[in-house]
Amino acid sequence: MKRLTQNLVSLLHYFTMILFLVMLFIVFMQVVLRYFVGSSISGSEEAARYILFFLVLLGASVCVYDKTHLSIEYFQDKLSELLKIISDLVISLSIIVTSLIFIIYGWELATRSMTQTTPSLQIPRGWIFMAFPVAGVLMFYFQIQHLVKIGRKEKIL
Amino acid sequence: MIITLFIVFFVLIIIGTPIAFALLISSTAAIYFFSHVPLLIVVQRVFTGLDVFALMAIPLFLFAGYLMTAIKISDKLIALASIFLGRYRGGLSLVTTGSSAVFGAISGSANATTAAIGSVMIPSMQKKGYDQAFSAAVVSSSGVLGLIVPPSITMVLFGVSAGVSIGGLFLNGIVPAIIIAAGIMIINYVISCRRGYGGEQPLDFSESMKVIKSSAVALAMPIIILGGIYAGIFTPTESAAVACAYGLLVGIFFYRNLTFTMMLEISKKTIKTTSVILFLIGSASVFTYVLASENVPRTLALFIIDLSDNPIVIMFLLLGLLLVLGTFLDNVAAVVLLTPTLMPVINFAGIDPMFFGVFMVIAVAVGQITPPVGLNLFIATNLTDRKLEEVVRASLPYFAFYVVLLSFFIIFPGLLTVF
To answer: Which residues of B touch A44 (CB under 8 A)?
Structure first.
């Protein structure tokens, strides 16, 4: 399980890195072409936007794994032991509920918009929205593991 | 509905829930229990919040900033600042402020600036007998310039949320940044005179020329970015892409200290920070949808106008709000959350959105040097062996300076809208 998680995380690292470099290349080429040729490749801006969208949702799932999302820790550090456990559980619950919303409604949005195509790239919009259920599953998986860890530490499980 | 929204949101935030998830859960709860709108709107809003081309500037500027930090630009800028400022009384403290200001023109982050400059300057100030609490205070209050000197991540966020020209915000950030840098240096000088900190031995001419030459390449970057935007050659987003390419060229061919492993590490860091910031934007877009559907920004605007319709009074109220929120809210979160709520107030009161943008970026940046959650203070304190309280006390004159200066900007708003 631990092995699987680590492999998954490094896979996500490499995948988002490729997305990032492609995006960087697209935006840079857009400037170069517009400046020297006078026109840019059609759809390049759209492609960059969608790549960024995928990158953010996948990256945000990794941030659930290593707990790097922005939060205010100042008050939590002042709580008593018991309240700290309760707050940890509430935090886990809110991340899990969010991931379920991404899975259920993201899937609905994606399957509904498979017939629409994007303005310049002409790809089905549904494929872009697929980032939601994918990120939802990843966040769910990572957060369940944190939850199990909390449970083991507090000997609840 | 709104009361539920805020109670759920604040409870979640206080127990330490990541802000993005607190926003998503509280808005989902408000939509689910108090309206007939299907929850599909949640994912739709996250998507529309992120589907903005101007946001591309954030990963690109982050990448360029990390790149310049990794190839040790900070050392060169410190050497450069030493030539011009080192010889005066309290020279090292002046060098700290000067190099932070220039480093801010390369990186868009206050914390990165504090860490990069502080890790070099705090030890060298210690060697010369400076009080460590004083040096930590200088480093952290100069580090704030990282957020104010353009390019600045918070300016991009404000521009996107408020629909204000990002290029304009960048250019208008230059004048206040210079005033702030000059002001901090005056405080450094006065304190140094009182405590008898001396100047440094000036370098001879040929040595100086060598330093200037090797740092000129780094200095060209902000000139390319701001000059390009000012001349209309490229948009802020495009200038960010150019900055990345320039940083790569400088690292590979000029300083020759950029390795492939470093590149991987930098992109990993960029992706992490980008995901955190942009995921927050997507989540905030659901939250502001709920607020807007309940007319909250408008009601708030009418309420404030009812108190006073004098723009100066309103600005002082907002300054108080921004400073208080800035003490515990990260500046990215503060800008993303407050801008959509406050913009109607600004429009009603007839305040220039451009002025307010620059003002807000400075006001929330000051939160970096106020406890309990002033990250700059933590970073600088960690570089010394002093306690946080001592550094906080030593930072007080600088904090007071920022507040006085912000009040000054309210009375003379023209200083923030020169371009």
So the answer is: none
Q: Nearest Cβ partner of A69 from B15, B20, B267?
A: B20
Separation in Å, CA of A31 to nearest CA in chain B:
6
Mutate to test the interface with B, among A20, A72, A93 (most CBs of B within 10 A): A72
Q: Give A15-18's long-range contacts (Cβ < 8 A, gap of 24+).
A: A15/A58, A16/A55, A16/A58, A16/A59, A16/A62, A16/B271, A16/B275, A17/B264, A17/B267, A17/B268, A17/B271
Work out the number of other CB atoms within 10 angstroms of the CB of residue B353: 19
Q: Which amino acid is at B280?
A: L
Are the beta carbons of B351 and B318 closer than 8 angstroms?
Answer: no
Chain B nearest CA to A143, separation (Å): 12
* B176/B362 Cα distance (integer angstroms): 9
Provide the chain A residues 63-92 that lie in CB contact (below 8 A) with chain B. Answer: 63, 68-76, 79, 87, 90-91
Tens-digit pLDDT string for chain A (157 aa) = 788 999 999 999 999 999 999 999 998 888 888 878 777 777 888 999 999 999 999 999 999 999 999 888 888 888 888 888 899 999 999 999 999 999 999 999 999 999 888 888 888 999 999 999 999 999 999 999 999 988 887 765 5
Read off the DSSP letter of residue B204.
P
Distance (Å) of CA B346 to CA B305, B319, B321 = 10, 13, 14
Q: Distance (Å, rounded) from C-alpha B162 to C-alpha B294? A: 19
Pick from B16, B279, B330: which is nearest to A87 by CB?
A: B16
Burial bucket for residue B404 (CB in 10 Å: 0-12, 13-18, 19+): exposed
Distance (Å) from the alpha carbon of A157 to chain B's nearest alpha carbon: 23
Put simply, the answer to whether B332 touches A70 (Cβ < 8 Å) is yes
What are the structure tokens assigned to A36, written together? Answer: 């020297």
Task: Tell me phi and psi for residue B18, to 5 degrees.
Answer: -50, 135
Residue B276 Cα, gap to closest chain A Cα (Å): 6
Q: Count of CB atoms within 10 A of residue A12's CB?
A: 17
Q: b/e map of A103-120 (b: 16 or more CB within 10 Å)?
A: bbbbbbbbeebeeeebee
Tokens matching residue B156: 């991009």
Alpha-carbon Rg for chain B in angstroms: 22
Q: What does the block give as tokens for B257?
A: 């200290």
Taking CB atoms and an 8 Å limit, are B21 and A28 in contact across chains? no
Q: A30: which chain B residues are within 8 Å (Cβ-Cβ)?
A: 238, 241
Is-contact B34 A109, C-beta < 8 A?
no
